[in-house]
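re: ur question from earlier - yeah i can do the single chain one, its not a big deal. heres the input i used so u can compare w yours
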Amino acid sequence: MTGLLSGLLMFSRASGAWGVTCNSGSSTNYTGSDCGTMSGSEAFTAVQCSGNCYTESMKQGITPNGVCDVIFVTAGCVQNGSKDCATLQATYNAMDPSAGNYGFACEECSSDSCNPTTPLSTTISATASDAQPLSMAVIPSFCLFHLARAFNL
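and the output i got, formated as tokens:
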């Protein structure tokens, strides 16, 4: 009987009944000629998801001591209508360009640990002239959290 139960468990996992394992968390990366004493942070863990995984990244120009960009990365389980690339792209498009945000990218995938924890390539190569319409009211909470940490607020 134990062999039968083990076989059924292995079959259900192989058939995707348990979903996928996704990287989940966030990071902040500072780049530029003068970011002062600001240092990046990273906190990711593996989580079980019932559907797909996603990674989004966005670059924001900040100038505390000169020229500095910050790239925010978040990753996790897709949640349709709130944490999926279509919704995240719409949120980004609704933001105010004067906030300095540019270089948004998002990817979804469906296999174990398929979502990267590093900035997506189109975000890394983005320049301020790539800015899209962006609104302080809808900047994802991770942006505000990391900016507050960066400026010790």
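The chain has one domain: 19-150. not sure if urs matches, ping me
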